Amino acid sequence: MHIRVRGAGHDYEGLSYVSEVPFVIVDLINLRTINVDVNDKSAWVEAGSTIGELYYRIAEKSKTLGFPAGVCPTVGVGGHFSGGGYGVMLRKYGLAADNIVDARLIDANGRILDRASMGEDLFWAIRGGGGNTFGLVLAWKIKLVDVPEIVTVFTLDKTLEQNATKLVHKWQYVAPRFHEDLFIRILVSRLNSSNQGDGFPTDGPLDVLLSRVQFSTRYFKAKSDYVYQPIPEGGLEGIWRFFFEDEAQSSQVMILNPYGGRMDEISASAIPFPHRAGNLYKIQHLVYWDEEGEEVAERHISWIRRLYSYMAPFVSKLPRAAYINYRDLDIGVNNIKGYTSYVQAKVWGIKYFKNNFDRLVHVKTKVDPSNFFRNEQSIPSLLSGRTKVINEVHHSIKNNMMHAII
After folding, report:
1. pTM to 2 decimals?
2. Residue 352 catalytic?
3. Better-scored residue on pLDDT, 250 or 59
4. Coil, helix or strand for 112?
5. DSSP string spanning 41-70?
6. pLDDT tens digits along 11-67
7. What is the number of H-type helices and E-type strands within the chain?
8. Which of 259, 326, 342, 352 is catalytic?
9. Whole-angstrom distance, CA of residue 219 vs CA of residue 297
10. CATH numbers and ranges of domains, the chain
């Protein structure tokens, strides 16, 4: 039976709580203790906590300390940190996973390990190699970062008639080169779209961060891309045409997050997350809908797949990179029975992890050879895969011999 580990929320493909094979959920909802040490500028965060809860507990203790994680407060830290985790401070301080200094993990043998006892290879793998792969992380020790007591946040709305195409085109050249204290991202959506993002008020009381329930829940499908060269104006105009289609009447959005700064300085192999220097920005493609039914879902999913196909000439290639925390089961070959060979996994693994994929497989084979922790896109163990292949080959040979005798 599969073991699925459920944190606090925002699992894009639902792999932590659904499966087409028998499975058991390990729910971390009660592991939510957060201990902030202002003097040491660190915190221990249990894996069932949300990002919002973490921000709130830091703010209780200090107005000049923070942590570079995501913008959606209901995201669970367990999955977020496991896949890298980014937010508006990535150009200043890198990813959440870049600022993890220790962890407590249960391995496949039931041992509780910290950084010293698990070793540097496993500690490297869990900081960006994806959740529910190498073990069950109980808690993370994070390094807090210095922040100003007051920051400036602003939004500018521009339409195509207000020269938006040229603005976006120019943004690609300058946003990754701005000072690391400045983060300017772009959200592309249809005018009067009902998309509400995370839905949390910006001027409400601080305790809104403690809510573990999203303000609105909708059906959605997401994809991701990385951009190395600026998209020409003609290419951008082709994107806008997708947003004028009938399928885009509800809520479609592209979020462009600039890189540069600290992201250019950290090695692509420092942790499993490989998308560093050379990237101008990352794109998150999203489509939302409210109506139920397979036909409605297929229509919207078809829309985002067509947009994704259109984007191919303008984004990273060989591989076309993707972000593991925006897990996408459209990428690669997935075996719903829970066994994924190395060859199958490398199709999507190279997109998520690039040259770090083989090192992740090596660590997985060492620490969880039987592939106890797994899902449809977890890192495979070479030993469990080899055993499975040998059994299948023997079974095939036996059947063929029986047929030959008959």
Report:
1. 0.91
2. no
3. 59
4. strand
5. TEEEEETT-BHHHHHHHHHHH-SSEE----
6. 899 888 888 889 999 999 999 999 999 999 999 999 999 999 999 999 999 999 999
7. 12, 13
8. 326
9. 8
10. 2-146 (3.30.465.10), 160-326 (3.40.462.20), 342-405 (no CATH)
